Amino acid sequence: MLQLSIESMDKSLNKYISETGFCSRREADKYIEQARVTINDNIAIKGNRVLPGDIVEIDGEPIKKKDKTVYLVFNKPVGITCTTDLKDKNNIISFINFKSRIFPIGRLDKPSEGLIFLTNDGDIVNKILRAGNNHEKEYVVTVDKPISGDFVNKMSNGIRILDTLTKKCFVKQEGKNRFRIILTQGLNRQIRRMCLALGYNVSTLKRVRIMNITLANLPIGKWRNFTEAEIRTMDQLVADSSKTADHSNYSTTDMQE
User: Fold this and answer.
1) Less crowded by CB within 10 Å, the N or C end of the chain?
2) Which of 58, 77, 92 is the last residue of a domain?
3) pTM for the whole thing?
4) Are residues 40 and 88 in the same domain?
5) Catalytic annotation on 150?
6) Distances (CA, A) of 47 to 6, 16, 60, 244
7) Confidence band (pLDDT; 50, 70, 90) for 9?
8) Annotated catalytic residue within 29, 109, 121, 254
């Protein structure tokens, strides 16, 4: 059985689990909801606190506190699924085959490619995913027919999708059928839905930047560690970010395209 001796001050159960590197807080909540987590042999519920000396168990899979925090930049190919579910033969975890447990921050749809982060740091996941923190994500998109100035204007000023008006954003035409867009939202399949609302279908979608990190010369299907400089800048950018103590304030679709 997984046994974690708690030596620090009491903290929320989902926060403790995320700090071990086992999964994000969001995923920890799912384990708790599925009654797969116990504290001192008692089934845990959301909102439980872990006190010094408590023993937390998660369905028989042994894990331990992470020895080192991992931050990876990955250039996801089309066809890879951003899930930790190993039953999915195209899952991102098996594709990368990293030596220790990691999980993606947000997601890119299977037909999309480009930049995604993976980590074992549950805290930074929470800070980056909060849509209210306005962290930029930049994409290069091609569509199935020529775009116009009217298309650019409407995309940049907001499109009504999913019963909401998207936030104003930067949009620049870069070719007959290609444009660049910078979002601070993460609505489900946001760019694809915005284009469809204007009568366009997305042919290719590539994320090229998240906050201060770019793909640069990273080949498709390859990953690298954050540089020390990137980590320092990231720390500064998320320093004032809200954490997710209240999960009702953000969506499970944050950091999508």
Assistant:
1) N
2) 58
3) 0.73
4) no
5) no
6) 17, 12, 22, 13
7) low
8) 109
